[in-house]
Amino acid sequence: MRLILLGPPGAGKGTQAVKITQKYDVPHISTGDIFRKNIKEGTQLGKKAKEYMDKGLLVPDELVVAIVEDRLKEADCKDGFLLDGFPRTVNQAECLDKVLDNMNTSLDRVINIKVDKGILVGRAVGRRICRDCGAAYHVEFNKSKVEGVCDVCGGELYQRNDDNEETVSKRIEVYLNETSPLIDYYFTKNLLADIDGEKHIDTVFEDIVLALGSEN
Ligand code: ADP
Ligand code: ADP
Ligand code: ZN
């Protein structure tokens, strides 16, 4: 299955991505995770991306598209993939269409996780991430069993640099201006599945499975 997860920052894309990739056995491709890995490793790409990420701005399309294109050509994407946080602009979406076209393939579904703006800031500011495996928790809504420690791997939990109120608000504004036009873009292509992201994490996942029911 070839899938995209669309939604504003804090909607629950990463949380649902873990569940979807387990159930459907497709690789999880998160452009945000790729950039954070590069920042951690101190690469040139990481240095460039950090300038934008710290301000809550989008990394320029030409940097992002090349990375995703290379990743989609890897062997594990042959039978499917889940893109999380990409595309984020209409230009990125058009580039993705071309890349997939050249590979003689196309998207199956775009899952649009909808969450009211008023809820998003609290979600993102309370988010904690595992340094080692990237699992996401929330200080209130999705606590780890032991505070500050990852349930999955025992790694240390940290708060992302860009998960402060000011940067999150900027990211939501950027989402509304630059990314939300993709809802229409994929609706027109008959690919969109709207999901209510305000329900419990497990219920959101059940709704996604239902929406994907007719896919194989
Ligand atoms: P995104 O990848 O869309 O930015 P995440 O999956 O990282 O979002 O979720 C943002 C934060 O909200 C995390 O701390 C996560 O634990 C929490 N969260 C995710 N889904 C829900 C939900 N349905 N209800 C409450 N909190 C949620
Ligand atoms: P969130 O899960 O909160 O939506 P991400 O981890 O997806 O956050 O993204 C964090 C930051 O990484 C974004 O604010 C942006 O600066 C950068 N980024 C990630 N994906 C893209 C993309 N497809 N295009 C441009 N910038 C991106
Ligand atoms: Zn972990």
Provide a descriptive summary of the structure in words.
The chain is built from 9 helices and 8 strands. By secondary structure, the chain is α/β, with parallel strands linked by helices. The chain has one domain: 3-Layer(aba) Sandwich (Rossmann fold). It has a 5-stranded parallel beta sheet with strand order 2-3-1-4-8, sandwiched between helices. The mean pLDDT is 96. It binds adenosine-5'-diphosphate (ADP) (2 copies) and zinc ion. One adenosine-5'-diphosphate binds at residues 9-10, 13-14, 31-32, 35, 52-53, 56-59, 64, 85-86, 88, 92, 124, 171.
Largest sheet: 5 strands, parallel
| Strands in their spatial order, largest beta sheet | 2-3-1-4-8
CATH architecture: 3-Layer(aba) Sandwich
Q: Kindly report the CATH topology.
A: Rossmann fold
Structural class: alpha/beta
How big a fraction of the residues is strand?
5-15%
- CATH superfamily, called what? P-loop containing nucleotide triphosphate hydrolases
- Backbone shape: globular
